[in-house]
Amino acid sequence: MPALHVHPRKLAAPMRLEHIYRHPVKGLTPERLETAVLQESAGVPFDRCCGFTSGNLPDPPIAGGWVPARTFIQLTVYPGLARFCARLDETQGSITLTAPDGGAAEIALDDAAATDAANTLIRRHFAAGPHGAPTLHVQTRPRGHWDFADTGISILNLASLRALEQASGTSIDPRRFRANLHIDGLEPWAEFGLTGGRYQLGETVIDITRPAMRCAATAADPDTGGTGLNVPALLRKATGHLFFAVYARVIETGVVRQGNRLERIGDMPGGPLDNLPPRAPDPAHWPRVYEVARVGDTTLRLTSPLATWPLPAAAGERMMLHPGLGHAGAFARVTVETAAPDAIFIATPTALTLGAETAQLILSGPQSRREAQ
Questions:
Q1: For the purposes of burial, counting CB atoms within 10 Å of the CB of 196, is it exposed (0-12), middle (13-18) or buried (19 or more)?
Q2: Phi, psi of 227, rounded to the nearest 5 degrees
Q3: For the residues 190-208, what does the mean pLDDT come to?
Q4: pLDDT classification of 275: cutoffs 50, 70, 90
Q5: CATH class of the 4-10+283-372 domain in this structure
Q6: How many Å separate Cα 202 from the centre of its chain?
Q7: What's the Rg (C-alpha) of the chain?
Q8: How far apart are CA 249 and CA 208, in angstroms?
Q9: Looking at domain 15-19+148-267, does it have CATH number 1.10.10.10?
Q10: Are 219 and 302 in contact (CB under 8 A)?
Q11: What's the pTM?
């Protein structure tokens, strides 16, 4: 087993909002903002307010409703979509769409029927699917075309990005992860410990609901549309999981600006497992933060810092220990020795050094027998 090192828990550094991004058209390169009004039960205004259907599914979008991501042209299947740019003019209520060949079209947000120019432009670059040609759909409600019905914004920890770059030996554009808010001041991967909390950010209040599982869309270069960098494979190799950034839900409308602090003010009601949407990743796979304390010379006691997040494992089941917080080593599998209602106990790995009586670790699980092999 590789050497495992666990260090004392550090005092939390101030979490600072560094960047704000909006994606006016789903799948296209985002635009950066200095300030935004996060809207209750929605997110950044006009974020993903438009999308081009792919023709791959028979049911068209419903005005004001939610539809699966495959309804639209996706970076997962069409990475070249990243080469298109969309710039929103809030004063005029319009979006200027620019293609890689220089062609342009304007989208009037107050006239959902005036889509001919945008459709003509996009159809020059993307073929029709089995159920029709690509067609622009303007979302009429404040919350845009999100892949899941329970989210409105996503938050990226820049320290985790730097850790992934260091582990992979390559530069990674943060726009690949299509997050709305970039924060700094945390340790690498400490964003997974934000899940289940309620936070003040500027003038708004948000609940951080769950980690974001990454797919092949992150392989699309935001500038070139190339797919030479396999980000999911980098994540799997460096961390043992496929999660990067976290999702959040806006509870109170308010202004956020670059430089605002993100401060915990309590726990979200119900907890992170409450009302998960269809097709959400299995919570057993989520990286989760546990408090860890030594029990005797050979055993570690793990407890959840959230009363609303029950411990999932039973004696004999396998858990995965991931890099981050107190553990700077490689990911490793551990076995649960015994379990209590409020704690689980694992054997102290031979090479693990616990730098204090209490610390924090990131684990996921329990794993199925197949996953643990």
A1: buried
A2: -125, 35
A3: 96
A4: confident
A5: mainly beta
A6: 21
A7: 22
A8: 6
A9: no
A10: no
A11: 0.91
